[in-house]
Specification:
The chain is of the alpha/beta class. It contains eleven helices and 13 strands. The strands form three sheets. The protein has a five-stranded parallel sheet with strand order 2-1-3-4-5, sandwiched between helices. It has a five-stranded mixed sheet with strand order 7-9-10-12-11, with helices on one face. Strands 6-8-13 form a three-stranded antiparallel sheet.
Length: 364
């Protein structure tokens, strides 16, 4: 995300002022906004009002305990990531209660600073990716809506303009109503121009000069973010040639978002866990990547609709994400391509081709 984006927010919910101070000092280096709550009631209200991106929640607090706060959040369909904090004497029981209530993770007290930072960074990376996915989904939906409305609007304008031209052709040059017919034609043309400008603006590419991103690094970040957000057992096996030193002409955020979504789709196709195989074949000018899952797969009709906006396979629940249509749009920014192969009941393979720049080409 760019430096102009608002800072991510972390809420520290703990009735111990020293612990809040400890977390504030520890997390100060992450360039985030720190929020504080001193009890469960305030924490619940602040989460709803301030919408933090991550919550560090003590279990034992006045008013409502941390587990009850998590339970109420999940009952209200609030999916904010919550890390439960629990002291040594309560650890196992409270960890189980917290995870059953819907907490994402657990940290014991006394706290290990390195472990805290590692987990917080992972969840913040996940939050950034999810924000990007939502942004791309909104942009795609807006473009689709504007183009659909423009198409209908242009049909109406075509009828108006055509009728006005027929009237104009049958009128005498000196007819007093001719000036009104000309006004109709002129304004119809102006409206058509504005309609086209809206379509152009809605579909405009955001970044005409993308930065170069290291493919292997973005893949690792996307996979780690996914693993942090799930309790399921999935294995990612990487085969083929190494992508070390291979750069892709996409921003790091966009490339991570694309890889995150494709890996996420593959994992959702295997709800009980399974093996994902990612194969890489770099050449002089292209990086060919295939991602194969062993999931539910798609039939021919589903495969034909896979890149349609808002399409969702009936075997997989709708989930927040950019979706394949927006993945393809983002990839087009860099001249990359995407294709699919799938067999119902056997799995799906995503086929990608990226233009690449090698590290040695960047020297000088």
């Amino acid at each position: 995300m760019s430096g102009m984006d608002p800072k991510l927010k972390i809420l520290i919910a703990d009735d111990d002022s020293w612990m809040r101070h400890f977390f504030r000092q520890l997390l100060d280096s992450l360039d985030v906004t720190i929020l504080e709550a001193t009890d469960g009631v305030q924490a619940l209200a602040d989460i709803e009002r301030l919408r933090p991106d991550l919550v560090l929640m003590d279990v034992v607090m006045p008013g409502l305990d941390g587990v009850e706060v998590v339970h109420r959040l999940r009952t209200a369909n609030n999916a904010v990531p919550v890390i439960i904090l629990s002291a040594l004497g309560e650890r196992e029981d409270e960890k189980l209660r917290g995870l059953q209530a819907g907490a994402n993770d657990f940290l014991p007290k006394p706290c290990n600073a390195a472990e805290i930072l590692a987990k917080v960074r992972t969840y913040l990376d996940l939050s950034r990716l999810q924000k990007r996915l939502l942004e791309e989904e909104k942009r795609r939906a807006t473009t689709t809506l504007v183009r659909g409305l423009a198409h209908q609007f242009n049909n109406i304008l075509c009828g108006l303009s055509g009728a006005a031209q027929l009237l104009d052709a049958r009128m005498e040059e000196t007819a007093p109503l001719r000036k009104y017919v000309n006004t109709i034609m002129e304004n119809a043309q102006r409206a058509a121009t504005i309609s086209q400008q809206l379509v152009t603006f809605a579909g405009a590419r955001r970044d005409n000069h993308p930065t170069l991103s290291r493919f292997s690094e973005c893949l690792t970040l996307a996979w780690n973010a996914l693993r942090a957000g799930t309790q399921q057992s999935h294995q990612l096996v990487i085969t083929g040639a190494s992508a070390a030193g291979v750069y892709i002409p996409l921003s790091s955020t966009d490339l991570q978002a694309v890889l995150y979504q494709l890996l996420h789709n593959a994992m959702r196709a295997m709800p009980s866990g399974g093996r994902l195989e990612l194969h890489m074949e770099p050449s002089e000018s292209l990086l060919k990547v295939s991602l194969k899952d062993e999931g539910v797969g798609m039939d021919e009709d589903e495969l034909a609709q896979a890149f349609d906006p808002f399409f969702s396979s009936g075997d997989r629940p709708t989930d927040v994400g950019m979706g394949l249509p927006v993945v393809r749009t983002v990839l087009e920014y860099s001249g990359a391509t995407i294709g699919l192969r799938s067999v119902k009941g056997e799995g799906t393979t995503v086929l990608l081709e990226f233009p690449l720049v090698r590290q040695e080409q960047l020297v000088g």
